[in-house]
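Me: I keep going back and forth on a fold encoding question. No explanation is needed for now; the record alone will do.

Assistant:
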Amino acid sequence: MKVIKHLGLRTKIALCVGVIVLLTGLAGAVFTHEVMTTKLRGELEERGRDIALSLEDRSVDHILRGNFFELHQMIQETRANSNDVRYIFVLDPKGNIIDHTFESGFPTDLLSLLGPESGLGHRMQLLQTEEEFIRDIAVPVFDGKAGVLHIGMTETSLNSAVSEVVRILLIATGIALLVGVALAWFFAHLVTRPVLQLVGVADAVRDGNLARRASITTRDEIGRLGRAFDTMTEQLAIRIEELEDRNLQLSALNTIATLVSGTEPTSGILSEILGKLLNLVQADAGGILFRNHERESGYWAHVGFSQAYVEGVASLMRNSDKEEIELILNRAEYPVSEFKPVERRLLSCVEREGLQSFASAPFWVKGEIHGTLHVTRRAKLPFMPRELELLSSVAAQTGIMLTNRQLLREASQAEALRHLNQMKSEFAVRASHELRTPATAIKGYIETLLRPDMALDRNVQKQLLEDMNEVSDRLNRLIQGVLNVARIDSGGPGVRKERLALRPLLQRITRRLGRQSPRPRLVVELDNSLGDILGDADQLEDILENLISNAYKYSPEGGTVTLSARKSSSPEDYDQLRIGKTSDVGTRPAQFVTISVADEGIGIVAQEVPKLFQRFYQVRDKRSNRSGGIGMGLFICKSYVEAMGGKIWVKSEQGKGSIFSFTIPVAGSSRQRVSGRESVRNMVNQRR
């Protein structure tokens, strides 16, 4: 069965016809053999009986008169004249042999044959020899009174005749088989050839070749099937082409939608949108033309146009009234020959550019036409409806993008104004609170000293005066911080850059700060190669005091605050040295001194790090609930560092502490010629 499954249809049909012809021929041969054998056996038996009766009638006189010679000649002559007679012998009533035709002696086995039954006339018995079957017919002679005559009829001639007929039938069957198989193969070929053509077309379609056709010309059912299959393939090719075009359009629209939602500059996005659109509609050139309320007009983006054409169209838009511009912006697909009179002024530009066909779609911004997205061809080839539909979709997306960006700008401006007002309110609250606290403390100390009912000794008075002095210093620092912020915002005097010996300056600052807070411990690590820097000593002191005070505030008791300074060729070099990276840091000339303040405190959440140097921003210690100041310390540090030509940054890990670092140019660096006043003013303007 597996072999049959893999055979072709023509082979199967030929095999079926061959098997049918063969079985029919064999069945006919068998049937003919059986019928002829039965009929010829009956005829043989009838002829043997007739011969036996004829001999019986003629042999009576010879037997009764004892003329056995004549009897012998008669039976010999009868046997010789009949090919079907194998033997003849005559027995007397006692069963003795009277005469026979056997040349080599009478077989005694024949004596056991029975004679005819009385009243039946004859008896037929079938004998089987080594060579053949013999039909023995026994007839009584003179009603058995003269004996019994036996005649043996052989089936040799019968079998020969039947075999010849069967042979002829088998030959005819073979010929019919060959002819039938050949005709079956031929007609099967006529039937299966178009089927195989359909199979080939189906395989080609499966492999993506939709141009293959069956081309069956017959008018029968297979021909109609082939034509229907070709029609289906053509329709399928059309549908697939439409789907591919639609997928390309959807992919382009998706890409355009992604671009629209991006944050890139508007001009760059519009150029990308225009480039993708030109590829989709197979246009030669295109542009995005705008006109706003301030009568500004021109191309936001264009591809394929010459600069002369772009400038000519922009000039035309600037010098046209609103109705003319709206007429141009509202046009859809149209050939150059259909330009309206108001558009004729474009014609000179168009003719020089060699343009023949236009398609455009306006885009809307906040309910008004803001411009047009148009594509052009240099051949007289009209744009298809699906291309115009795509053009309208892209124009709509462009309008949505421009509307969203305008709304976003307006919202950003409103949000910035709201945030500024909020920061001002928070600053006022924080400043009043921070100023009120030391003022209240000073007032309390003074009231205590002025009370007449309390006699204070000199030690208590000295302690109260020292506390008042400390609180006054804090109040002075708060006021100075507010003044510094105001001076920075107004671009005031700023920093004074001068050549400073860094090591003595750092040592003096750390000795003073170390006396103010014995815990945590302050450790100083200064590079031996430190030289002179270019900066403002007072502002450097303010920066270090702010950073070290913050480190004290957020460090645990018994912890360590480390102040370090090292030369570096760039701000990144110092970080590489601290984490043990090998590089060519030591081989490059030093341009900066990197100063770092490291603590072992609670660290800073990663999300808060980018906000640390913003004005009014404060980090609250959730475990100790510590905070203070007006949130301007790090902002002031950043302003002064950048004004001196440096950079400030922080690296922090929760639970392990923070490292605040900043750079100051070394004396002799190319950065030293920039004035402090100009640096502060530029820095503030950029931040705004």
In short: The two ends are 88 Å apart (CA to CA).
